[in-house]
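Contributing new records

If you add data, match the layout below exactly. Sequence lines come first and carry their own label; structure lines follow with theirs. Keep one chain per record. Anything else will be rejected by the validation script.
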Amino acid sequence: MKNLKIIILSLFALYAMTGIAQTDEEMREEILNYENHNLILENGRELLWEYFLDGNVEKVDRILAFLLDNVGEHYEGFRIFEEHLLYFYTGRYEDILSSELKDGMAVVRSYSDTLSQIKSHIRPPTDRMYREIKTSMNSISNDIRAEILASTYSQEDKDFLELYFERLKYASYSENYTSAFDKINVLAKEYKEKYPDSKHNIYSWKNGTAVYELNDWSGTANLGGGPSLFSGTLDDTFKTGYQLGLEMDAYYKRLNLNFKLLAGGTKNRDSLVVDEVTWLKNTELGLTTVGLAVGCVIIDSELFKITPTVGMATFNLIPTTDEQDDYPEYKESGIKFITSINFGGSLDVKLGGNNYYYSNDFYPYIRLRYGYSMLQYPTKYDMFDGDMQSFSISYGFYVRGSHRVYDEKVESEKY
């Protein structure tokens, strides 16, 4: 009986080992036979573009059809404007005019529709096709228009194809996006007036016609700093200071709300008694300012922007932590929470606007700021008088979004 148990256990162990070996072999085969859709997509797009540059329409059409059907359910072979420009190149006008594509041109297959859609699909690579297709299509646009005009489609369909082709060339990331859409708006309005009952009107007007208006709200953020100069007994007591920090702006049209948080330092020229504590000569002092101001943009050109401001701030002079470590009694002293009424202004030197995404306004800038602070001393600091002037230079970014306007507002205001 004992020998029988040993034989059964041995057979079971052998079977288990065989099962594991088979599983590993199957896994090895699965890995070796794995079809890398991403590699197929990248190589396919590169090959398609090579044939496009060679003018081989037949090969482009075949690769286009293959990639649309064989890149996997979680992959997108083409961005929507790439796919449809290639339809024009290969003469697939019937696909463009079909109701299924018409409904999906800018809605169903848009990458920006929902976050879940973005997460569930792997986007096409940013390759030569993406960078060059619009320029290349521009160079042959006259040939495509001639082919459309020579086709047997109705005049209504031909005009729509021309309108849509014009829109696709400027579908996104165009350097002249806004001016291009002005042209498209005119074409779409003409189409709507010429074919008021066209089946394409819903698309050509609502999705083809657009005016991108800049939002009323915008904002900036910048980092920088500069010297702080004192006057009166404040200047007799403290050396010229410096401050570095963050500045942020919120704009509503031309109105401005400015917030600043600055930190720096200075030294006292001679020994000084503050809060019954004697600060030795040349004590390292932290100089901080927190302020809020309102203003109005009076000049806003392509090169610069000028904004005068008025506001309030708090001013503090406290021994640094290193000084407090060396002289613990310093921890109980400080010139704190002196309020000030501030007058000043800023000059923003624009380093180049960029309407790369629709008509959003975005540019880096260098800001030169001057501020005059009328310090309001509480009774405990009545031994001081004088004000503070500050000069700063900083680097930052300006951002202003845009929104799309169409339909009745376009018709009534644009035209």
